[in-house]
Specification:
This protein has 333 residues and is an alpha+beta fold. Helices cover 26% and strands 25% of the residues. It is built from eight helices and 17 strands.
Length: 333
């Protein structure tokens, strides 16, 4: 009687496993659906208005502006005995022989040359002097690169953008290809898209001048973890949104062991972190909205215990044990 009950129990266990395993795979689960915002609502990766004025991008002449710390050498044409070298003080003034204090801070080189020439002529030192200023040292003798790339690159006259970025160590993968340049004397920042077409690279390789500041912004990324075939980070672009389905494709698709009805979308809004559970199957089949991802979103696909057991032979081991038990009972009867 006892062996018969054991026999029936093992049969029921095997049948239950065979019947319920597919149900565990494909049974739909009630999950909260996330519609996702139609557009990116954070400050990262917003489209930038590019500078198109060629007069600003490729100026025929560039007048450098003086600031504290610059070291200047004054030359008067035909007067080799007058060539003082002075540093612009914090108040923007310089001290010149014969004429004393001259305020040049904030002036362009040509404006400072005219001012010094007029002071020399007003003092009766020279008649109609032709003054030339040469900057030999100071903040205006470099181009400053900040952001994802950084450095102070010496520049004499002008230097091309690509040369400066290369000297600063190049662009890391986290860097945006839209470069912003702050130039003294230019009201608005200059925005240049480096692009990805080598044949059009000359349009972005603009000249830079001493005193320019190049800002290399960080591009936002989406992180994929868990049962993706190629987990890691996916960079975003400012021109096209990235949906969950697209991110899954870029990550190489999903592994068999993934728990498709339990994908976690982790998003930080301000100082608050939110977690939304999504059903990937429904999204892929078009039965649920495909959310638009935002910078720093995290997609985490956990493993299904049952699928992992199947991959590792766990279900086969259970059924095999049940079969051996049945065989043993049959032998002993």
């Amino acid at each position: 009687m006892t062996s018969t009950r054991l026999h029936l129990g093992l049969l029921n266990l095997g049948a239950l496993l065979l019947v319920t395993a597919p149900a565990l795979f494909f049974c739909p689960q009630a999950r909260a659906q996330f519609n996702g915002p139609p557009t990116v609502t954070v400050d990262l990766n917003r489209p930038t208005t590019l500078t198109t004025d060629r007069g600003i991008l490729f100026p025929p002449v560039h007048d450098q502006f003086l600031q504290p710390g610059d070291v200047l050498t004054v030359h008067v044409f035909g007067q080799a005995d007058y060539s003082p070298s002075v540093r612009v003080a914090n108040d923007g003034n310089i001290q010149l022989p014969l004429i004393g204090t001259v305020k040049v801070g904030g002036l362009s080189l040509s404006q400072a040359e005219l001012l010094i020439a007029s002071r020399l002529e007003a003092a009766g030192i020279y008649v109609a002097p032709q003054v030339t200023l040469q900057e030999t040292e100071g903040p205006n003798s470099v181009v400053t690169v900040i952001g994802e790339a950084h450095g102070s690159i010496p520049v004499s006259g002008s230097r091309r953008l690509f040369d400066v970025l290369s000297a600063a160590g190049g662009l890391p993968t986290s860097a945006s290809h839209v470069i912003t340049i702050h130039r003294p004397g230019v009201a608005q920042p200059i925005a240049v898209d480096l692009g990805s077409d080598p044949s059009r690279s000359d349009l972005a390789n603009i000249p830079l001048f001493p005193g320019d500041t190049v800002v290399v912004a960080r591009i936002g990324v989406v992180y994929v973890l868990g049962e993706f075939r190629s987990p890691g980070s996916i960079p975003l672009t400012p021109y096209a949104p990235l949906s969950l389905t697209q991110a899954a494709a870029l990550a190489g698709g999903l592994n068999f062991a993934g728990k498709l009805g339990d994908l976690h979308l982790i998003r930080t809004i301000g100082d608050r972190r939110t977690v939304v559970t999504l059903d990937v199957n429904k999204i892929f089949r078009g039965e649920a909205p495909d959310p638009i991802l935002q910078p720093n979103d995290i997609l985490y696909l956990p493993s299904s215990v049952l699928k992992v057991a199947i991959q590792q032979g766990g279900i086969g081991a259970v059924l095999g044990a049940a079969s051996l038990a049945l065989t043993a009972i049959a032998i002993t009867r």
